[in-house]
């Protein structure tokens, strides 16, 4: 087996991500609630980070992790507010961000997402990086409201802009800007302090991730709190650091591709070596990340 294939095998075996969710001991997972701006909280459990915004009459949620955690997530929301959750936005279709949709809908929540999220949830999918077939979601899990470019919610004094970005982590990514709170939820276009996973089989693009970061930076200042898809609550400086690493990787891989290097040769050249000790400690290991970057850039 080639080096890259070995790396992928190791990645799938250790990721604890989408296809391995069934192996998680859900009883051991707790939901932590972290302040993330005026009236906004970040909920951390297993899977993608959640945003909870509380208004005068109702609450608004971004993402809902895995289905087995729904009761714990709803309990954490009830501990933070006695207001009912009226709307929930999916930042994209993956099960660690949208897996709780059906249970949330049964609790009376209206699910909202980009058009492509409903399309992917409603049809069988195959995540190439995980070699994982994902069956279509049940009808009750599908977003009831979809949008093509953007949609705005009015939560009391809070205005929430949900903006679709061109293909990045997937082809249905949205970033969510809580304008009064000065908080941004970026979904999986931002993995704080670690290499991101780009799902090329879901229309993702490495260059698009950098573009999504640029889009978010236009809303951010030094006081902005940024909720990443994975990782700790971040600042604009953290997001700038993330962009700097990704741009450097892009430029180095582009130079190697221009030299005619194969994917194996690009991986062997270790263009990410200076960041691997810290950025490569998440589930996305350096060799796997580089392989995905190479494949994405070769499609250009």
Features:
single chain; Metallo-beta-lactamase, Chain A; alpha/beta; about 300 residues; globular
Characterise the protein shown here.
The chain is an alpha/beta fold. The chain has a single domain (24-240), classed as Metallo-beta-lactamase, Chain A (4-Layer Sandwich), CATH 3.60.15.10. The chain is built from ten helices and 14 strands. It has helices at 3-14, 70-80, 95-98, 101-106, 115-121, 206-217, 236-258, 263-269, 273-279, 286-298; strands at 32-35, 40-44, 50-54, 59-62, 85-89, 110-114, 125-127, 132-134, 145-147, 150-155, 158-164, 174-178, 183-185, 225-227. A seven-stranded mixed sheet has the order 1-2-3-4-5-6-9. The radius of gyration is 19 Å and the shape is globular.
Side by side, the strands of the main sheet go: 1-2-3-4-5-6-9
Which regions contain 5 or more consecutive residues with pLDDT less than 50?
Answer: 1-20
Structural category is alpha/beta
> How many β-strand runs?
14
Residues in helices, as a percent range: 25-40%
Tally of discrete structural domains: 1
Tell me, rounded to a whole number, the average pLDDT. 92
H and E string: HEEEEHEHHEHEEEEEEEHEHHHH
Largest sheet, strands/sense/barrel: 7 strands, mixed
User: CATH topology, anyone?
Assistant: Metallo-beta-lactamase, Chain A
The rough form would be described as globular
Distance between the amino and carboxyl termini: 28 Å
By CATH, the architecture is named 4-Layer Sandwich
What is the CATH class? Alpha Beta
Helix run count: 10
Strand content: 15-25%
Please name the fourth-level CATH homologous superfamily. Ribonuclease Z/Hydroxyacylglutathione hydrolase-like
């Amino acid at each position: 087996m080639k080096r890259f294939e070995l790396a992928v095998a190791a990645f799938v075996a250790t990721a604890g991500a989408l296809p391995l969710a069934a192996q998680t001991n859900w009883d051991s997972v707790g939901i932590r609630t972290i302040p993330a701006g005026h009236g906004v909280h970040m909920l951390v459990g297993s899977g993608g980070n959640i945003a909870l915004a509380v208004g005068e009459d109702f609450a608004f949620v971004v993402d809902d992790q895995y289905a087995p955690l729904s009761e714990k997530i709803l309990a954490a929301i009830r501990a933070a507010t006695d207001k009912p959750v009226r709307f929930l936005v999916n930042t994209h279709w993956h099960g660690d961000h949208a897996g709780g949709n059906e249970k949330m809908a049964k609790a009376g929540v209206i699910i909202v997402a980009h058009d492509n999220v409903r399309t992917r949830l409603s049809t069988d999918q195959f995540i190439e990086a995980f070699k994982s077939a994902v069956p279509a979601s049940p009808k009750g899990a599908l977003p009831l409201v979809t949008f093509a470019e953007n949609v705005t919610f009015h939560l009391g004094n809070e205005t929430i802009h949900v903006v679709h970005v061109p293909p990045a982590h997937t082809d249905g990514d949205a970033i969510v800007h809580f304008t009064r709170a000065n908080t941004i939820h970026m979904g999986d276009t931002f993995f704080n302090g670690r290499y991101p996973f780009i799902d090329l089989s879901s229309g993702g693009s490495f260059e698009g991730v950098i573009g999504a970061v640029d889009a978010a930076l236009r809303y951010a200042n030094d006081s902005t709190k940024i909720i990443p898809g994975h990782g700790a609550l971040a600042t604009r400086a953290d997001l700038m650091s993330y962009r700097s690493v990704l741009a450097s990787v892009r430029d180095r891989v582009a130079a190697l591709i221009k030299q005619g290097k194969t994917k194996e040769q690009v991986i062997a050249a270790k263009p990410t070596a200076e960041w691997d000790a810290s950025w490569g400690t998440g589930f996305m290991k350096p060799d796997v990340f580089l392989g995905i970057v190479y494949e994405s850039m070769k499609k250009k």
